[in-house]
Amino acid sequence: MSRNKRLALGLALILLAAPSSQGLINPNFTPANLMKDAELVLAIRLHEVDAKGRAVADVVKCIKGESPGKTLTVDFSRPGKKEDAAYLKRMIAGQKETPAMIFVGKGENGEPLSKLSIESKWVVIDKPDENGLWAIDVIDGRFQDVWAG
Q1: Closest to 124 measured CA to CA, from 138, 110, 112, 134
Q2: 3-state class of 40 per DSSP?
Q3: I want to staple 43 with a disulfide (CB 3.0 to 4.6 A). Which of 22, 61, 78, 81 is the partner?
Q4: CA–CA gap between residue 31 and residue 143 (Å, rounded)
Q5: 109 DSSP 8-state letter
Q6: How many helices (H) and strands (E) does the chain have?
Q7: Percent of residues in the chain assigned helix, strand, coil, to nearest 5
Q8: What is the C-alpha to C-alpha distance for residues 77 and 72, in angstroms, rounded to an integer?
Q9: Distances in Å between the alpha carbon of 64 and those of 38, 68, 73, 119, 125?
């Protein structure tokens, strides 16, 4: 067998033996879908989390819907795991020039759903309570995997 044929055969075997890449794809979780399905979209700048686990956020821009005001307060003290709360605090501290985004709308089954995106990390967030406090519900790794896709 000639040298070129052996090389081609070797490359073909390497390509066939290489593991395939697995990615999560959800064609309904794209920026266009988020904008279409959202009733409210806010660009916000989060400030440091205080001792009570809350952070004030300036509303930089109301992209869709009616802004709830110039500032809002996000409660980071409620995530199910303490490490989630610590992780979120580090995300806020490391927030760069890109503002965080809040999308308020409906989920895949029509249920009310709000999402907070900080530096492309996704968190499910509850709509504000009677005191205007937005509460973090859970970091949803499913959104991270799909967004990174």
Answers
A1: 138
A2: strand
A3: 61
A4: 12
A5: T
A6: 4, 7
A7: 30, 35, 35
A8: 16
A9: 8, 12, 19, 20, 18
At residue 136, φ and ψ (nearest 5 deg) are -70, 135
Q: Say what the pTM is.
A: 0.71
At 95, phi and psi to the nearest 5?
Answer: -60, 130
* Two structure tokens written together for 136: 């973090």
CA 76/CA 125 separation, integer angstroms:
10
Stretches where the chain sits below pLDDT 70 are 1, 7-30, 79-82, 95-96, 140-149
Task: Please tell me the predicted confidence (pLDDT) of residue 58.
Answer: 93
With beta carbons less than 8 A apart as the criterion, state whether 91 and 35 touch.
Answer: no
Q: Given this model, what pLDDT does residue 21 score?
A: 47
37 closest CA partner among 109, 97, 140, 86: 109
Please give the mean pLDDT across all residues of the chain. 76
Query: Chain-centre distance of CA 44, in angstroms?
Result: 14
Note the pLDDT of residue 77: 80
Q: What is the dihedral of CA 147, 115, 30, 121, to 10 degrees?
A: -20
